[in-house]
């Protein structure tokens, strides 16, 4: 298998006890913006696949 055939998934995780903290909610909202998905797809050319 060649390196270009390997795909990675990027995920944001936190402890369940912290999931409702304002900073965690803000980061989660920002990471789920369509512009972030487009940037990841363009920058990493599907080597990293946004799973949100």
Count up the helices. 2
Mean pLDDT: 85
Shape: elongated
Largest pleated sheet: 2 strands, parallel
What is the strand tally? 2
- Report how far the terminal alpha carbons are from each other: 26 Å
Low-confidence stretches: none
The order of strands across the largest sheet is 1-2
SSE order: EHHE
Alpha-carbon Rg, integer:
13 Å
Would you give an account of this structure?
The chain is an alpha+beta fold and 52 residues long. It has helices spanning 22-31, 34-44, and strands spanning 8-10, 48-50. The chain has a two-stranded parallel ribbon with strand order 1-2. The longest helix is centred in the last third of the chain and has 11 residues, at 34-44.
Notable features of this structure?
2 helices, 52 residues, alpha+beta, two-stranded parallel ribbon
